Amino acid sequence: MKTRFYLFALLGFITVSQAQLTLTNGNHTLEISGGISSYYNSRPLKDGEDDRKKDRFKLRDAQIQLEGRIGNTWEYELQMDFADQAANANGADFDPENPGLMDAYVIYKGLGFVNIQAGYGKIYYSRSSMTPFVYSPFWQRAELTRGSIFSQRDVGVTVMKDFWNQRINAYAGIYSGLGELSLNGDNDASGQPEYAAR
User: Fold this and answer.
1) Contact, 42 vs 55, CB < 8 A?
2) What is the predicted pLDDT for the residue at 68?
């Protein structure tokens, strides 16, 4: 009985699980990783309030990430969150911080003086927008950088360069201007792209 109690207590405190596998042939490296996180939502509410989202466990993330390198010239990444994808498909409110598809891009490093990234990914406008939310003590970003005011991710091209062993990083990019809504296949009615630099 005591062993069962400790087992259930331990399972109650485990909220994050991760795994990683690396495959390589010397020139081409592929890293496959995944992570699952959950939480328990317990909130006392006032009498008369009817909130069905309290007092239950919820799956926060069920992510898979494929990162690869081909020589020293190409890098690619595909990152997907199945929990958010399922929530969006079932009619949940769209969360710009977690749109389902998180990254899908290719980086070309063959020019030497700059790297070029093309595809769907994070917009490089602030340090907070580039840092994964799991490194935040509250599991989410500040309201200003969550994606409801400024887009968190978008389709576009970014030119990047680092100086002094990555002590200074410079980014400049041109994006569709639709942010996470670009995944729907729509075009910006104004036809104007969005520019970002850091």
Assistant:
1) yes
2) 95
Q: Identify whether 9 is part of a domain.
A: no
| 39 sits in which H/E element | strand 28-41
* pTM for the whole structure: 0.78
Residue 97 has pLDDT above 70, yes or no: no
Distance (Å, whole) CA 179 – CA 194 = 9
**pLDDT tens figures, 40-59:** 777 776 777 766 666 677 77
Nearest to 195 by CA among 178, 169, 174: 174
Secondary structure (3-state) at 125: coil
Q: Number of structural domains, the chain?
A: 1
Which one has a higher pLDDT value, 10 or 174? 174
Those residues whose C-beta lies under 8 Å from the C-beta of residue 145, and which sit 6 or more positions away, are 126, 128, 129, 152
Phi, psi of 141 (to 5 degrees): -85, 170
Rounded Cα distance, 27 and 71, in Å? 5
Residue 10 lies in a domain: no
E-strand ranges in 50-108 read 56-70, 74-81, 101-108
Is a pLDDT exceeding 70 seen at residue 64? yes
